[in-house]
Design brief:
By secondary structure, this protein is of the alpha+beta class. Helix content is 16%, strand content 35%.
């Protein structure tokens, strides 16, 4: 029998005060090839297919081949602090902070683009702002664009140099993103509002800029973060305003907009108020997950129609990440949260495992879709710097810590691999359990008078995961499966036994006689204003409440759409304005029904 072919391997790069080196996955063993002993490595990055690797040391920008570590090019620009490859790795863009130094004239270029194969600098220009500094390329590198004052310039051949072949003119345009696809190309743009007017998110098809495919106008918007799906057919725009006019949040106010290449554009309705922490597209591009709301945050899965499909409940989380195959999704909480991670099977929508990685500042899925990297890096945290390799089941595969007390870890970066390198594997079902850190957690302080007692006070009441939206309605309407003949016989037999056991009116030594039960029933009828409900009627009360809650939520969704139309400047009719006034009453009714159910 022939021996099985070895599984494909991947690597990750480590950058810190001790230099730069590369380790293999998933064992974390350091191997030869790319390495640099310089204690001043400012930046590093992989090309999109992982075939090339670039970094900056104290003397130059280096570009190497990842297969054998051979240095392909070296550029004498040690002040570079940001690097970016074009999608196919043909070009490398490098940016250094803009400054006018002694002996140099103002306007000295600080952004350079090189042809990696030839080593030639194809263009250089001034780019003062670090936000959106790099040129934008299409997936085939045939189209390149960059934003200038009030315009977006487009170039053919992947080189942003010379006279542009096309221009998109928008007043005060701030942000632009090319779809990650080949012909036809789509352009998403963000135009801030001016003189009290709304901001605009628009979608164009290149080069027909005279026609807008989709558009959204937003009044409360200072900035937009655009996120395309992999196929380049739709994108999410997370809008944000620095000041929340209601005063409910210190971090401002956020909203979520959806636009696609069919011309559809809508606001994604979120069921809990509060900030939007994270959103991520499924690799198939047909669904996305959002983490939002005041803590404990909510996580919801949406389909292409922006309808909720599944509610993951609430918890201490602020990020969501799909693995490369879309089979497992991770809900995590880092920063000022304790570092809990939940791993869910996308196919079954079931919790697979839980673990905890405290003090994590960086999370990345490995290309195999089974392992992931967490790291504690400086300058965010300067204590206990290091990284850990995990399996999504919660198993710790390996870890590394900086050797000295004054040493620091700055960055950990997984090497990308071409699509199809790793095959998707079946998700391993593991009993959900918390893998805690080895540190002992001190008990909460309780005053002397309360010691030895149990407190019923809860700071937060977490919501449980549930199927929502159209999927829940379909599940509720599913007809019951017919029982087989043997199952029907067993059901009748069990039913007969229960009736015999429950009928104690004639049993000798019975504690409660039939006459006593009749007396109690008569007394109940005299006292109660209405007949007592049967057990079957009582059991259906939560179901009735749930139906009422769904109807009320539909009315709330209608109110949200009316609000969006009002924000866009549309004049509402009298009955529509009356609907807006009834929002508080609807929320009150939903709260009462939720308590009653």
């Amino acid at each position: 029998m022939a021996a099985a072919a070895p599984s494909p391997a991947s690597s990750f790069a480590v950058r810190g005060s001790n230099g730069l080196w590369v380790c293999s996955l998933p064992d974390g063993a350091r191997h030869g090839g790319i390495s640099d002993d310089s204690r001043d490595c400012k930046s590093m990055t992989y090309s999109h297919d992982g075939s090339r690797f670039a970094w900056v040391n104290a003397t130059s920008v280096q570009v190497a081949r990842t297969s054998d570590g051979h240095v392909l090019q070296s550029y004498p620009f040690p002040r570079t602090c940001s690097l970016r490859f074009s999608p196919k790795g043909s070009f490398l863009a490098a940016w250094e902070p803009y400054a006018v130094r002694k002996g140099q004239s103002p306007g000295e270029p600080n952004l350079h683009v090189w042809n990696v194969s030839t080593g030639d600098c194809v263009t250089s220009y001034v780019q003062k702002k670090s936000e959106g500094w790099h040129p934008m390329w299409s997936a085939d590198e045939e189209l390149c664009a960059r934003v200038v004052t009030g315009e977006v310039h487009f170039f053919n051949g992947g080189v942003p140099d010379g006279a542009p072949v096309q221009k998109l003119r928008l007043e005060n345009i701030k942000h632009c993103a090319i779809s990650p696809s080949t012909v036809p190309y789509y352009i998403a743009s963000y135009q801030p509002g001016s003189k009290g007017g709304p901001a605009f998110i628009r979608l164009y098809r290149y080069p027909g800029f005279e026609n807008v495919l989709a558009s959204r106008s937003i009044f409360k918007c200072d900035n937009v973060k655009i996120s395309w799906n992999v196929q380049g057919t739709a994108f999410l725009g997370v809008t944000s305003v620095e000041v929340d006019s209601s005063g409910a949040s210190y971090y401002g106010e956020q909203g979520l907009q959806y636009l696609d290449t069919t011309g559809a554009g809508t606001m994604v309705t979120l069921s809990k108020k509060g900030p939007i922490y994270s959103s991520d597209w499924h690799p198939n591009g047909r669904e996305f997950c959002v983490v939002y709301g005041f803590m404990p945050a909510k996580a919801t899965l949406f389909n292409q129609k922006c309808e909720p499909v599944f509610d993951f409940g609430t918890g201490p989380r602020n990020a969501v990440n799909y693995n490369s195959h879309g089979t497992v999704m991770c809900l995590s909480g880092f920063g000022n949260l304790p570092g809990h991670l939940e791993f869910w099977s996308r196919e079954k929508l079931q919790l697979v495992s839980k673990c905890q990685a405290s003090d994590t500042t960086s999370f990345q899925w490995c290309p195999d879709g089974e392992h992931f990297l967490t790291a504690t890096t400086a300058p965010r945290l300067r204590q206990d710097n290091g990284y850990r390799i995990w399996h999504y089941s919660g198993r710790d595969v390996g870890r590394w810590s900086v050797p000295g007390a004054k040493d620091e870890l700055w960055q950990v970066c997984c090497q990308p691999v071409p699509y199809g390198t790793f095959r998707a594997k079946a998700v391993i079902g593991v009993q959900a359990s918390i893998t805690q850190e080895s540190k002992s957690k001190p008990a909460a302080y309780r005053p002397p008078g309360a010691r030895g007692t149990t407190s019923s006070l809860k700071l937060h009441e977490n919501e449980r995961p549930q199927v929502v939206g159209a999927a829940a309605a379909m599940k509720a309407e599913e007809p019951a499966k017919p029982l087989s003949k043997s199952a029907q016989k067993n059901k009748k037999r069990r039913g007969g036994k229960k009736e015999d056991a429950s009928d104690t009116s004639t049993a000798p030594g019975s504690a409660v006689t039939q006459a006593q039960r009749d007396a109690v029933a008569m007394a109940t009828c005299l006292v109660a204003p209405a007949p007592a409900a049967s057990a079957a009627a009582v059991s259906t009360t939560p179901v009735e409440n749930e139906k009422k809650i769904r109807a009320l939520r539909k009315k709330l969704q209608q109110i949200e759409k009316l609000k969006a139309q009002q924000a866009e400047g549309k004049t509402l009719e009298g009955n529509q304005l009356e609907k807006l006034k009834g929002e508080d009453e609807l929320l009150r009714q939903i709260k009462e029904l939720s308590v009653g159910s």
